[in-house]
């Protein structure tokens, strides 16, 4: 079973701060670096850098809003990430089932 994984996308969502940012953006319908930094344990500058990573992989869209930039989650790209995760999870489930069957066969041969 072959799974195509977008390494840049997974590198972006591999960071716990960026995952939390996506959660906040989804629950709030969007946000700015300032509003996000108020809810995260990092500086506004760090939030801006994380948002830049999410923007480069297409997980967020940016809209100018006065002096700030409003970020919103790109739901199509997020759905793509979720589909990849599901596919990877299914592949690993299949591998683990094969390992379990092999281990059980080895145990049965030892018990015989």
Automatic annotation (TrEMBL):
Pfam family name, one: HTH_20
Positions of the HTH arsR-type domain: 1-93
CDD domains: HTH_ARSR
SMART domains registered for this protein in UniProt: HTH_ARSR (SM00418)
Alphabetized InterPro entries for the sequence: ArsR-like_HTH (IPR011991), HTH_ArsR_DNA-bd_dom (IPR001845), WH-like_DNA-bd_sf (IPR036388), WH_DNA-bd_sf (IPR036390)
PANTHER family according to UniProt: TRANSCRIPTIONAL REGULATORY PROTEIN (PTHR38600)
Protein name: Metalloregulator ArsR/SmtB family transcription factor
Native species: Streptomyces siamensis
